[in-house]
Every structure is written in C-alpha cells, then in structure tokens.
Amino acid sequence: MAYDDGSTEGPSLRIMAPDLSSAPPVFQDALRSIRDARTRSDVRLSESPAPTRIAPFAAAVDGEVIGADVEGTGRFVLLHDPEGQETWEGTWRVVALVKALADAEVGAEDIWADVAWSRLEEALEDVPHRHRGGTVTKVVSRSYGDLDERPDEVRVELRASWTPADAKIGPHIVAWTELLASCAGVPPVPEGVTLLPGGRA
What is the DSSP string of 15-40? Predict the structure, then answer.
C-alpha cells in the first residue's frame, strides 16, 4: 500500500493498510502523522494487524524496548469512525497497551499501579485529548522448592484508551513510546540527546 503521495516509509516506521483508497483524507493524514513521528530510537516499532470490528478504519503498531536488562512491549491502536461513537465522545480513539518486567522491590509495592498510571498522565500531559481511562494489572511470580532462590518476578500491564482532539496522532504515539520505555525502567531521553540502539546516548 502506498499513500497518495506514493511514499510508504517514514524515519522510524512503515505504515501499511489493505486499502486506503476508500479511507477519508483525514484518516490518511492521521497515518502520515504516525509515520512521520520522531519516536524514541530505543523503542523498535513494527506494523501490526489492526482490529476490524471496532471501527471502519484502524491502524496498529507494536513496540518493543531495545536494551540490555530491560523488557517492555506494547501495542498502539488508532481507531476512526467518521460517524463518531458515543463512548469515545468523538470520531477518534487510541487504545494503548504496555507490558513490562518491573523491578521486584518496586513492583511489589501496592502503589506501583498509581505510579504506572501517573506515568501515563505525564506522557500525555501536553498531548491534546480527553475521555481517558484504563487499568493497571500486576502479576507477581514467586518460586518455591528447588527454585526458591530465584528472585520474585513482577510483570505489569497497563491498558488505556483516550480520545485524540484531532488527526494529529504523531504526538500520541510519541507519548506511548515514552510510557513504554518508562515502564520498562529506561530513563527519559534528555532534550538534544539521541539514543543509539541498546539505550546508549
């Protein structure tokens, strides 16, 4: 699939769809906004099959944090219904998923869910949106018997959705990659610094 201008690839992501010829121009603009977004270089992005029953038009992106001793994956889904949906309070909806392996000491605290949600709020602070909601789930794996020397393993999952204010979706996927890296324990990238693969500045 190619866009109207014939291009298919941006700086960090290739966006594909089965057929954009019937998609409204505003949805094509939204895909270009995703394609051209300057996301973190330590979060690898790839096209993912989009859901087909929730909205007439959809696109999805998978993300994986790259680096030693970190583990974080996620999914970013953009939904568009030109007629609008009452539960969205608009014609756009972003559905975001983040899965990460958390530090055992930090993840074991009950406050971790609040911390994870606050990181989402911080990531979206300057991104125009409304009607935000979601859940944070934590799973603690503890070993016993011959394996009782293994440290506890804490995995967290954050599911969230929100309604973008317009078709400028680039800032939303940038915020999601920042959230993904943060939940995986990767520090934020200082302004003016570019990360190399592996998380090195």
Answer: ---S--TTS-HHHHHHHHHHHT----
